[in-house]
Amino acid sequence: MTAEHKVTYCRICEPLCGLIATVEDGRLLALRPDKDHPLSQGRACPKGIAFSDVQNDPDRVLHPLRRRPDGSFAEVSWDEALGDIAARLRGVLDEHGGGAVGEYLGNPSAFGYAASLWSGLFMKRIGAGHLYSAGSQDINSRYVASKLLYGAATQIPFPDLPRTDFLFMLGANPLVSHGSALRVPRVRDDLAGIVKRGGRVIVVDPRRTETAAAYEHVPVRPDSDAWLMLSLLHVVFAENLEDTAAIAATSTGIDDLRAMCAGFPPEETAARTGVPAATVRELARDFASARTAVAYGRTGACLGHHGTLVSFLIDALNTVTGNLDRPGGALMSHQVIPVEQFGEKSGAFSYNTKKSRIGGFPDVFGSFPAALIAEEITTGGPGQLRALFVFAGNPVLSVPNSVALESALGQLDLLVSLDLYVNETNRHADYILPGTTFLERDDLPMAYAACCPTVFLQAAEPVVPAYGQARPEWEVFEELAARMGLSLFATGALAPLNPVLRLLERRGLRITPQRMMHALLRIGPYGDRFGLRRGGLNPARLRAHPHGIVLAEHAPHGVLSEVVTHPGGKVALAPAEIVGEVARLGRAPGITDDFPLLAIGIRELRSQNSWMHNSPILMKGNRTQRARVNPSDAAAAGLLDGAAVRVVSATGAIELEVLITDEVGPGTVAIPQGWGHRGGGWRLANAHPGANVNELTSSRPEDLEALAGMSVLNGVAVRLEAVRRPSQSPARYSASRP
Ligand SMILES: Nc1nc2c(c(=O)[nH]1)N[C@H]1C(S)=C(S)[C@@H](COP(=O)(O)OP(=O)(O)OC[C@H]3O[C@@H](n4cnc5c(=O)[nH]c(N)nc54)[C@H](O)[C@@H]3O)O[C@H]1N2
Ligand SMILES: Nc1nc2c(c(=O)[nH]1)N[C@H]1C(S)=C(S)[C@@H](COP(=O)(O)OP(=O)(O)OC[C@H]3O[C@@H](n4cnc5c(=O)[nH]c(N)nc54)[C@H](O)[C@@H]3O)O[C@H]1N2
Ligand code: SF4
Ligand SMILES: [Mo]
Hints:
Strand content: 15-25%
Bound molecules: ligand MGD, iron/sulfur cluster, molybdenum atom
Mean pLDDT: 95
Number of strands: 28
Number of helices: 27
Structural class: alpha/beta
CATH superfamily of the domain at 141-335 and 562-582: Dimethylsulfoxide Reductase, domain 2
CATH topology of the domain at 141-335 and 562-582: Dimethylsulfoxide Reductase, domain 2
Strand order of the largest sheet: 5-4-19-18-17-6-7
Helix content: 25-40%
Shape: globular
Largest sheet: 7 strands, mixed
CATH class of the domain at 141-335 and 562-582: Alpha Beta
């Protein structure tokens, strides 16, 4: 057969860049960027191209696996695996109830719609008491900030990059991450465009990152952004730089916000933030007086001790300067397929409707902090976690205090993983079920695709049939429900979709995730209303435009009063939770004599969290994980460049190679995250293990962020110790240097 070229899009990270897959006989030969993609226009990053290594990886799990008593895995049939899982789950439910069952959703689950929907229905149906996700290590603080500000957690404002004159970026490194909670596949061009138009890009970051080096860098001490943002707002108010008309029209609580900021003049916060008062004053003036300006923050804003507060203050700055919901400012996220609108209606995007058994944390979308999983497994009593599904996740590397988590997993009665690999987490599972890659399934974008300055939609068909016995993950949950005699639709969770479901029923169609999404598409703002609106979107029209359809050049503005669900459609600038959090400021542990430095994470261009280190293309060049240490701190600890360092925190210690550099300031240590491979089925990754930063981070409830239960992954107090002996522990780090 001759090779075919199939249009698709990448689902590794948020830009969803267009790709062309070369396929022969149902096998992928290669991936290349799609020149005809309206947004990415021929751009894709090394990970996207290297996904062919994952698709064709000889180490990929292609059969259901059952763990043997000796820890090795044996292939079993789907029938056997699902039969046993259903029976064992039934046993746990009969003995302990749904409160003993849980699920952890990893990051890749957010890049397909079907399985997260169906697994959610399944968990709801069995009354699962434990839902967790990568969100508590990533973005839940952002959601909670939005819940407090707008009443709608999924309303995540994003910077209108093509039109802004002033981008104030805090804790994001889009030249490497390619943007997060922001869909701009050509982010490099978008940032350059701002400066070309005569605008400015400010990057607030403890590290001189790739993005910071390319633009105006404001170095900041880790975990001090709350003080910086309060000081910026302080100056705006003290110097009467606010937009009073916009404030009056769009918000409530301005007097309380002003009072909250009064105690934080930049002269008093400079010692903590490391940002000189004059710089803060100038930034505040420049931001407020720019024709248009927008503040944007991402994981560096979300993962400190005050992640919800920092995310909140970023939006508050946009609001009080009149830059929220206007061109060139922050635009409200805008969905083509109104999944989130229905989710908000059905109550799926809840906050603080229940509390975690351990720690008493508020739920975020029904989920609790993943940092608590270990203690939820090891703590007896009603609601003890006994059966856990891990879907597209590797929490043993990604969740704080991974040593505790890894040892707790062994106590579960049932651990089931749906994944592409045997990883550090599911090597402890009873069953590993082979999931499909994004090239093997249909998709429609969800979630952060709504944070796009252009209104755009692209649908993807599978470009290759599932390899081996891999199965779409949603079918696994449907099949389990069937084997347990449960209907997924009996809970009322889909009640807001009843008209859609009835429609499918009337047509005699089985309810599948795809049919549900297509129905939502058709009744959504751009849909064809099942023929009532000429030219509207429907599945056939999407198929006719495989590169996607630009529905509007610019996302809408002036929509605040429609999307904000607070009384009068007004933004709440001083909710009690935030007032309380400001009052608590400063009680976070911070540095001590024992642990005088603060550690932060690094994302790398050729990694995707923990799961692409088995790709030969990405691992080329003898990659090494290195801790970045400032020369003064290196001298104080007696470290030599290229030698090994032991990084010690109150939770644990890791060893890795040190890179002495002034890209981090004194007092800051930066360490790449996503490493620490050992014992999974990914052989190349195991040969370049690196160290797991989450052996340093804390899972103690008192160490989590208060409002969203976020893991504190940046600003972790540590000390450095020179490792004198020659590097002898290759299981911990790779000592080789390019
Ligand atoms: N210290 C520290 N820790 C962090 C962070 C940090 O900055 N510092 N970042 C955090 C962030 S932002 C995130 S998102 C989390 C990520 O945390 P996780 O989601 O727990 O971890 P990943 O490394 O993304 O692992 C994803 C898993 O999904 C599998 N997978 C990939 N694609 C598919 C698929 O299509 N189907 C199925 N079934 N499986 C698939 C991969 O093989 C891999 O095993 O880590 C967090 N942890
Ligand atoms: N190549 C690549 N791309 C990725 C990923 C990957 O692993 N590799 N992961 C994907 C995922 S899951 C996500 S969530 C996104 C994240 O997208 P981004 O948030 O843009 O990614 P990061 O590179 O983690 O950027 C966070 C920045 O915050 C800085 N920072 C750390 N602590 C602080 C602090 O206290 N204050 C301030 N102001 N800054 C701080 C860090 O130095 C870092 O530069 O990236 C995605 N894209
Ligand atoms: S930037 Fe993200 S979405 Fe685009 S090609 Fe790279 S991995 Fe894929
Ligand atoms: Mo993430």
